[in-house]
Amino acid sequence: MNKNLNQPVNTMQKDPKTPWWVYMALSSIQTRKGAMLLILSNVVFSAYCIPWASLYTEAAWVKTLFLIEDWEWFAWTAPMNIWYWFSVRWVDKNRGWETETASQQA
């Protein structure tokens, strides 16, 4: 429930027991479904960031579709997946997720 009327409904509430790393990862996500969509989209992007063109040199379509040629992007996105997952697990165990929608609060 959103008790502060000045706070937007679609943001995560920061309370004293929420670690900064959880708040930074999920600050604009209100529901667990939204957090899982974030993780899923990041996993898909991470899979795209694997340098497939250097792994499969025989297939020309791979070089056309996958433009990334080094592991740099994957090296950044893989730890982000882990960070998001641990943040979701922290909220699951300690805080819980918002269940009320904006239309129910009005």
Total number of beta strands: 0
Proportion of residues in helical segments: 55-70%
Structural class: mainly alpha
The unreliable regions are none
How many angstroms does the end-to-end distance come to? 11 Å
Overall spatial form: elongated
Profile the largest sheet.
Answer: none
SSE pattern, N- to C-terminal: HHHHHH
- Number of distinct helices: 6
Mean pLDDT over the full residue set: 79
Cα gyration radius (Å) = 18 Å
Strand content: under 5%
Q: What would you say this structure looks like, in words?
A:
This protein is mainly alpha-helical and 106 residues long. The protein has a domain of 49 residues. It is built from six helices and no strands. Helix 2 runs antiparallel to helix 5. The mean pLDDT is 79.
Summarize the entry for a quick read.
By secondary structure, this protein is mainly α.
